[in-house]
Amino acid sequence: MHAFEYVAPHSVDDAVTLLQESGDAQVLSGGTDLIPQMKEGRRRPPLVVDVKHIPELNELVYDPVEGLWLGAAVPCHRIVGNGAIARAYPGLVEAISLIGGIQIQGRATVGGNLCNASPAADSIPALIAHRAVCHIAGPKGPRTVPVEDFCTAPGETVLEPGELLVKIHVPAPPPNHGGAYQRFIPRNEMDIAVVGAGAALVLDERGQVIQQARIALGAVAPRPLFVEEAGAFLAGKPVSEEVLEEAARLAREAARPITDMRGTAAQRKHLSHVLTRRVLIQAVQRARGEEAGRRNGHV
Amino acid sequence: MRAVGSSIPRVDAVDKVTGLAPYPGDIDLPGQAWMKIVFAGVPHARITRLDVSRAQAAPGVIAVFTAADVPVNEYGLIMPDQPVLCGPGSTPQAQIVRWEGDHVALVVAETQAQAEAAAKLVAMEYEELPVVTDPFQALEPDAPLLHPEEFPFPYGQRDRRSNLLLAYRLRRGDVEAAFAQADVIVEAEYRTQAAEHAYLQPEAGLAYVREDGRIEVIVAGQWMHEDRAQIAHALGLPEEQIVVRYPAIGGAFGGREDMSVQIVLALAAWKTGRPVKTVWSREESIIGHHKRHPFVIKAKWGATREGKIVAAQMDVTSDAGAYAYTSTKVLGNATLMCLGPYEIPNVHVDARTVYTNNCPSGAFRGFGAPQGHFAAEGQVNKLAAALGMDPVEIRRRNALREGSILATGSVVPAGCTALDVLEEAARRAAESPPEPPVTLRTSLDASRRRVAQGRGLALSFKNVGFSLGFPEHCHAWVEIHGEAEMERAVVGCVGADVGQGAHTVFAQFAADALGLPVEKVELRVEDTDVTGSSGSSSASRMTFMAGNAILGAAQRALQAWEDEERPARAEFVFHPRPTTPYDPQTGASDPNITYGYCAQVADVEVDLETGHVLVKRLISVNDVGKAVNPQQVEGQIEGAVAQSVGWTLLENFVQENGRAVTQRLSTYLIPGVADVVEEIVPVILELPDPQGPLGARGMAEMPFIPTAPAIAAALHDAIGVWFDELPITPERVWQALRERQP
User: Fold this and answer.
1) C-alpha torsion B17→B20→B24→B26, nearest 10
2) Residue A21 contacts by C-beta under 8 Å, 6 or more apart in sequence?
3) What is the DSSP pairing of strand B346-355 with strand B309-321?
4) Does B665 contact A at CB distance below 8 Å?
5) Which residues of B fall within a CB distance of 8 Å from A188?
6) What is the CATH class of A1-173?
7) Nearest beta carbon to residue A183 from set B443, B673, B731
8) B446 contacts A294? CB cut-off 8 A
9) Contacts of residue A272 in chain B, CB cutoff 8 Å?
């Protein structure tokens, strides 16, 4: 690895100042993406700003009214290990639980997963489905960006020079809310998604009519893909196999995958359909409180 | 309690779990320098100029070595067709790069970082040569030639105007006449892929000049004395000038049978006078060592209505890659193994291995038997389906038994237990019918509603020890200490413990023969000075060979003890019964010393929407003759099955135009713990091999072999599709399901 400067500021302001002054500094959170990239010489930042000592970035607070505040430097294991959060957002937590393996979970952060901006990132479709919003600090002051607008291209985000992702806010789940995330990989663990699908929806009191729904896909476009039309189609419709199937078909239509080593475009289109249907079924079951078996995606 | 037959803890267990056991990469020597090997990075080219001046001038650089610095610039386990370093200033053949992983320069520097930085400054000028990567195209008359030059070829005359490395044939009876009388004939083309060993420890090692003036190479390999011979040959030194030492070895599976860093470390240490160390990255390991052979096998088999197999015609082609490595030996095995463990009266096999610009192919657990059996067992299962016959019954009617004549015309060695493993597998399978699909396994399962289940069976055999006339032997000595009573014993035998537990087995045999507790047996296993060659830790041979050698030495030492020698010391060289090479026209031979037998039953579940395959249960019945350490035997069975499930369902070493595409473990997918079969049922049979030490047979490759055809048969049972190409990925299953739909 090359020689570089390392600073660990204790406040958001200090971090922003450092990032602004350096220009090509890299933010270090869990480091599970950045450190391998630096070891292989793919990134050679002159300055590494370690944000793990900044209190706001370590906040993990869930309130049934306010929702979830998820600091950008909170490692996955803290989220996955939090029973209240897992009960409130099973679809989000199962996405987070699929990132890397057990050891990686101890370091990797959702904030890092977002800022790395991989089209196949597991947490992002689930965050989009759950209406999450990014809270950003920067030289021009704070701003907020919906997660679906945060990534702009593979490895690229809306962050301007000097800007820092501080935390992510996920609204409180309304009554009769259900969410799910699934990904397809050829093996059963520790792999990059061939396709990932996240869904969250709200049913009426009787659990029969879909009031609102959001669906997002991973690994089928240059950035995580918010399939707004599929969710909009479901809004106001009674739950049935046919409407879930139609939403899944819309997700398949929206997917614009490429062929690469992990899968062909045709397979990814097909999996977009299958996974969307499956996460919708699971989300409905959860909204009705009738899900059997496990909650998250781990064995 | 006798030492042989008990699951004593491994002699290396504590050191390995506590991290004390030194692997080559863990070892440092005072004053050591670091070496970086520069790979060619092009698959076929003539190097016109190699400019190392900038690298030589870089900070910390001690020396840069090129082809001109290698005394005898050739090496190879079977034939010396590979330059140690490619480039000008050496032999004509060394000017040509034939593989992207060819070595072109060695940069030795004070630190690892300096060696790596300077290696990037080596400038190679070259003329590109046409690349051939398909073995069938490589056999075309106008194909680019990889090896037009002369080198010592151990199989008679080689046509230097062809990329054909070697061809074998087997002829028995009259297949045409037999096909004319067969009631059913099945034909298929089987394809298997290149595969990476993915052992835990990438290549690493050190070399230094000892105080006695000899060069010591500390490395992880499979056969110390062969490493020593190849190092000595390339350096133009007598073998006595070289010492090869194996510390702990992090897996091998055949992948360390050929040279990687051995020769170049010795060269660098010798030329610089400094201890020199090198450690490959995972990517260098994946690019830089050989792979399992891809095979294409065209098969046509016929049987009578009664299920008697009457004819087998096989056309077998393997991609040898750029250099011979063990391709001719793997071909020798595949030529016989593609017929499975069956007595077939009419046989016609044409087999060949062909040079291409791909990564060299070589030894990998099973050594041609997995590829051969994928075809043979696929054919038997298809015949059973065509006849409407139970897959066990058709095998019962054709399997080798005592006195059976092989296609080579020789009698199968005594102790043939193909039917025993078959019947036990059938019995175990009948006892445990497939379970309904209730287990949740992946993130997909919770909402997975459309699944199909199936069960499949396969039977296999595999030679123990080197084949076809190879002069097999193994050295050992035993030294008994004490006065009136035996106090302890020392055993010298340098067979490599590549992680399979060989050293524990050595101690168990010695303790058993001498009547001592295992703790009283001290092992001398460390280097080539201890004793003569033990042969390779491959071909499932080490327990068989070293066991016989140690028992022989122990008996003689006991005699010396009786004769009041103190310490009582004796040596023994075990020579198994000789084998003979294939007759070039007919394949007539006595090909192998003996065989091990394995039958497996696989239960699979297929996700009908995604094509994802889950192996729920795998029953593996292995006749091991005598389980020297039953726990280790079970470990070998479970490890082999896990590895074979990877080969069957996931792993694929992809190359494009002679360049590795899957260079990392993030793109070359090996099974994770969640991918290993949910329930592996290891079943050990102990039907003695009359030639084995206390009856033991080799066993470590055998449970790899039937897994792929058993899973393929289970998939056919589940969804009615035959998969004849590996790996059977979800995408291929999904495509097959899509094509099956109206």
Assistant:
1) 110
2) none
3) parallel
4) no
5) 441-442, 614, 672, 674-675
6) alpha beta
7) B443
8) yes
9) none
State residue B617 phi and psi, 5-degree precision. -145, 140
Domain regions of chain A by residue span: 1-173, 177-287
In A, minimum Cα distance to B113 occurs at: A1
Please, which residues 420-479 of chain B have a Cβ atom closer than 8 Å to chain A? 440-444, 446-448
Q: CA-to-CA distance for B680 and A270, rounded, in angstroms? A: 33
The alpha carbon of B140 is separated from its chain's Cα centroid by a whole number of angstroms, namely 29
Report the C-alpha gap between A77 and B120 in whole angstroms: 40
- B567: cis peptide before it, omega within 30°? yes
Residue B441 has pLDDT above 70, yes or no: no
Tell me if B319 sits within 8 A of B356, measured CB to CB: yes
What is the domain partition of chain B in residue ranges?
A: 31-129, 419-453+596-740
Q: Which of A99, A284, A299 to mutate to test the interface with B (most CBs of B within 10 A)?
A: A299
Q: What is the pLDDT of residues B687-735, one digit of tens each?
A: 999 999 999 999 999 999 999 999 999 999 999 999 999 999 999 999 9
What is the rounded distance in angstroms from the CA atom of residue B604 to the CA atom of residue B409?
A: 38
Lowest-confidence region among A71-80, B434-443, B586-595: B434-443
Inter-chain CB pairs, A–B, below 8 Å: 72
* CA pseudo-torsion sign B195, B496, B259, B33: positive
* Pairwise CA distance, residues B485 & B463, whole Å: 41
Whether the complex's predicted ipTM surpasses the cut of 0.85: yes
Q: B239 exposed, middle or buried (CB, 10 Å; 0-12, 13-18, 19+)?
A: middle
Would you state the pLDDT for residue B740? 80
Q: Measured between alpha carbons, how far is A97 from A88 in angstroms, rounded to an integer? A: 15
Using a CB-CB distance cutoff of 8 angstroms, which residues of chain B are in contact with residue A37? none
* B358 neighbors B698 (Cβ within 8 angstroms): no
Interface contact flag, A184 B730, Cβ < 8 Å:
yes
Residues of A in Cβ contact (< 8 Å) with B448: 278
Fold of the domain spanning B419-453+596-740? Aldehyde Oxidoreductase; domain 4 (3.30.365)
Q: Is B734 on the interface with A (CB under 8 A)?
A: yes
pLDDT band of A189, cuts 50, 70, 90 = confident
What CATH number belongs to B31-129?
3.90.1170.50
The CATH number of A177-287, from 3.40.50.10490, 3.30.390.50, 3.50.50.60, 3.20.20.210, is: 3.30.390.50
Distance separating alpha carbons of residues B590 and B436, to the nearest angstrom: 48
Tell me the mean pLDDT in the region A186-190.
89
pLDDT at B252 exceeding the cut of 80: yes
